[in-house]
């Protein structure tokens, strides 16, 4: 917390550390003057308005502890570097207007762009702004702009105002295409504007009120762990709120996709699919709980659907160089989720042993249960991940997962 006198009326203003983006010294070197970048609550409460807006102030003789906490470290990934002689911008801003509750464009206008004016030199302000117009915009951008530049060895920073889906779109567009020996991985800075924001919450990007701006200026780039999913022939990707479908990328004649968050079947997969409609999405993260209630307490009073199939787990074997497959001893399931992240949404700790950008895949699963019993387990996940201590729940580190469907209805094979 920083308190300072407001010029003019002499009133005291308090600035919470949760609101501070960064502190920069103002030239000349050795001066006691600093520029403080921070956010304040926005006065507009409309649904698509940003919750905060960008502000800056000048401070003199700031407490050293405050400077130490908020001055970007020497190894910070910002600023984005422009290659010598390069005319095409290597800083890209991607605004996914369909993510979450539709705040991405407002956050860009009221928070990101004003901040960039403070931290970019005139030459560095040469960034490219991309606003999505369809659910394939990010994929198209990656294939037509980001990947060709990466294949030329050009360093790129992509500021992505999106949810987890935007990251996954970029990953799949890159990994489903040819990468040349000169390929240079782009750096993605995520401003979490999605519904669950599992990656941001699990990587501690969402631990303050700056909506990712502090991490953008102060963070260092790290590799993002991924997993690959192979499907049986004929599998298709559902699009347009499940109204349409398209073929998946193929490797060795089999459909393949890549992920960075979760691979699930059962209750979680169904509630994500069922809630993927405009009528549900307007409720933000609450849409998951609303869909879960409908799935756990069907209107006809029946029990939740048991998901039929065989589940096998690839485990590391102690004192052996080989991993071995083990089949789970049941032919019906309630919840099956393999994950690389700690939280699926803020406060919902699905995998308490997972750490930020942890490459270890972990499995959470349980069999068919009553709606009340399943809700009890899900509630424990909101209590710091206590569900993993429930005897009904399986929780372990795995090297792979195999699901063989025996479901007759397509709705329950998603």
UniProtKB/TrEMBL annotation:
GO CC terms of this entry: cytoplasm; membrane
GO biological process: sphingosine biosynthetic process
PROSITE patterns listed in its UniProt record: DAGK
Pfam families in the record: DAGK_cat (PF00781)
Highest taxon of the lineage: Eukaryota
SMART domains: DAGKc
Residue ranges constituting the DAGKc domain according to the UniProt record: 86-234
Molecular function as annotated in GO: lipid kinase activity
Matches recorded under PANTHER family: DAGKC DOMAIN-CONTAINING PROTEIN (PTHR12358:SF108), SPHINGOSINE KINASE (PTHR12358)
UniProt-recorded name of the protein: DAGKc domain-containing protein
């Amino acid at each position: 917390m920083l308190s300072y006198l407001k010029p003019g009326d002499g009133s005291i203003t308090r600035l919470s550390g949760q609101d501070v983006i960064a502190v920069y010294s103002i030239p000349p070197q050795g001066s006691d003057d600093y520029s403080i970048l921070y956010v304040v609550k926005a006065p507009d409460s409309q649904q698509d308005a940003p919750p905060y807006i960008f502000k800056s102030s000048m401070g003199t003789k700031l407490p050293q502890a405050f400077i130490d906490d908020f001055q970007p470290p020497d190894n910070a990934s910002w600023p984005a570097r422009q290659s010598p002689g390069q005319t095409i911008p290597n800083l890209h801003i991607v605004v996914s207007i369909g993510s979450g509750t539709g705040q991405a464009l407002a956050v860009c206008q009221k928070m990101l762009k004003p901040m960039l004016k403070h931290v970019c030199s005139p030459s560095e302000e040469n960034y490219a702004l991309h606003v999505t117009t369809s659910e394939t915009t990010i994929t198209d951008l990656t294939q037509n702009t980001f990947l060709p530049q990466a294949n030329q060895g050009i360093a790129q920073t992509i500021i992505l105002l999106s949810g987890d889906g935007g990251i996954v779109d970029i990953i799949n567009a890159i990994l489903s295409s040819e990468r040349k020996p000169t390929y240079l991985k782009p750096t993605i800075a995520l401003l979490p504007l999605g519904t669950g924001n599992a990656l941001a919450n699990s990587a501690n990007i969402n631990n303050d009120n700056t909506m990712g701006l502090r991490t953008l200026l102060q963070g260092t780039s790290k590799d993002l762990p991924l997993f690959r999913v192979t499907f049986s022939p004929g599998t298709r990707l559902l699009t347009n709120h499940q109204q349409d479908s398209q073929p998946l990328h193929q490797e060795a004649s089999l459909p393949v996709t890549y992920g960075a968050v979760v691979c699930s079947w059962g209750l979680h997969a169904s509630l994500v699919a069922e809630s993927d409609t405009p009528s549900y999405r307007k409720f933000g993260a609450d849409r998951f709980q609303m869909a879960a209630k409908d799935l756990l307490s069907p209107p006809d009073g029946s029990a939740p659907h048991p998901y039929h199939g065989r589940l096998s787990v690839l485990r590391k074997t102690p004192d052996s160089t080989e991993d071995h497959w083990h089949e789970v001893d049941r032919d019906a399931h309630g919840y099956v989720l393999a994950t690389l992240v700690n939280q699926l949404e803020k406060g919902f700790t699905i995998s308490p042993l997972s750490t930020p950008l942890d490459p270890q895949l972990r499995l959470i699963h349980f069999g068919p249960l009553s709606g009340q019993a399943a809700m009890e387990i899900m509630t424990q996940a909101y209590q710091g991940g206590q569900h993993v201590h429930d005897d009904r729940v399986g929780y372990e580190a795995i090297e792979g997962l195999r699901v063989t469907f025996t479901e007759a209805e397509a709705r329950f094979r998603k």
